[in-house]
Design brief:
Blueprint lengths: L1 H16 L10 H21 L10 E4 L3 E5 L9 E6 L4 E7 L7 E4 L7 E5 L9 H19 L3 H7 L11 H4 L7 H19 L3 H22 L1 H31 L4 H4 L7 H18 L2 H4 L4 H15 L25
Parallel strand pairs: 1-6
Antiparallel strand pairs: 1-2, 2-4, 3-4, 5-6
């Protein structure tokens, strides 16, 4: 009898100390990563793109079992509050996981507000803290794109959606990736872009740029109107997002010190090292691009490299980026291409 009473007392103490239905929480390593992404983004964003700070910076953070909504109002009754997080500077809401845990994407997941939907670094292709941080800033740039006035109306005006309102048309558009001539012509165009990027001195750069722009014009003419508009759109949107990922890392490496908590993470790498890796990776990918095998992803390094070339030929091109949407070729000197 006394033994059973003792067991019951122990049970009561444990039950009182550990609530049976406690809310889940974000692991501390993930809180540090998310907070650093917010902090670095807020420090560098307006140094690269004017008024980037006007864009939302909402995130749906995905773990193995749960989603945590940060810097976003509670969208529906599926989400419950776990209170205000001082490190994240936001009330945090949670629900059981519904999205894939390896997600790294941005879209209006719950309302008109574009939300970064991101898995734990270890569950994504980027794996480690510093790489994940600058991918988040890549996605944050998409928030700037999507939140600019008229963005969705202007996308629809391209006439490429086929009536799809989900955004999946961007992945499913029937671009001629497997056309042998298109693939060969794109490879030749990519080689010419590489010669512009690697050109030494203004005279050589002007000559190589002139050759490249003529080749670019011929390639886009051969694609046909809709395919040309689609390629230009992807270069404008995804290519410049990759460019922005690199440029935010470069600015952070010069202007911002990592927080003590972030720099103490076991997988931390310096911002300069990530800057170097991103540039090396982009140029290495450019040298290997294959339209047939890579599909839509060719536009990421291709567009990023065009952004780097534009930095050299017109440092003010970013001021026109949102007024002349979906066609960065308009920013090259000496006329326009399609």
């Amino acid at each position: 009898m006394r033994r059973n009473t003792f067991i019951g007392a122990v049970f009561l103490v444990v039950a009182a100390a550990v609530p049976l239905f406690a809310d889940p929480t974000i692991a501390n390593i993930d809180r540090i990563r998310i907070a650093e992404a917010f902090r670095i983004g807020e420090k560098v964003q307006n140094k690269l793109w004017a008024n980037w700070s006007d864009a939302p910076f909402a995130m749906d953070f995905i773990t193995d079992d749960y989603e945590f909504l940060i810097r976003h109002p509670k969208p529906n009754d599926e989400f419950r509050s776990i209170g205000y997080d001082k490190l994240l500077k936001s009330e945090v809401f949670w629900r059981p996981r519904k999205f894939k845990k390896d997600f790294l994407a941005t879209f209006p997941a719950f309302s008109a507000t574009p939300v970064i939907v991101a898995g734990k670094a270890e569950n994504t292709t980027d794996k480690t803290s510093t790489r994940w941080l600058f991918v988040i800033l890549h996605e944050h740039f998409h928030q700037l794109q999507y939140s600019r006035p008229g963005y969705f109306d202007d996308v629809n005006a391209l006439g490429l959606t086929g009536g799809d309102t989900s955004g999946m048309w961007q992945l499913n558009f029937p671009f001629p990736y497997e056309d042998k001539k298109a693939a060969a012509d794109f490879r030749a165009l990519t080689d010419r872009l590489l010669t512009v990027y690697e050109a030494k001195g203004r005279a050589q750069q002007r000559a190589k740029l002139s050759e490249y722009l003529a080749s670019r014009q011929r390639f886009f003419d051969a694609l046909g109107a809709d395919n040309a508009k689609y390629a230009s759109f992807q270069i404008w949107q995804e290519g410049i997002a990759r460019y922005t990922q690199y440029r935010t890392a470069a600015i952070a490496s010069r202007k911002v010190r990592p927080s003590m908590e972030f720099s103490r993470l076991a997988d931390f790498t310096p911002f300069q090292a990530e800057t170097d890796r991103l540039l090396t990776t982009t140029i290495s990918e450019l040298k290997q691009l294959d339209l047939t095998n890579w599909g839509r992803t060719v536009f990421y390094p291709f567009g990023a490299t065009e952004g780097l070339v534009l930095d050299r030929v017109d440092k003010n091109w970013r001021k026109r980026y949102f007024s002349d949407k979906f066609a960065i070729e308009k920013f090259y000197p000496r006329g326009k291409t399609k």
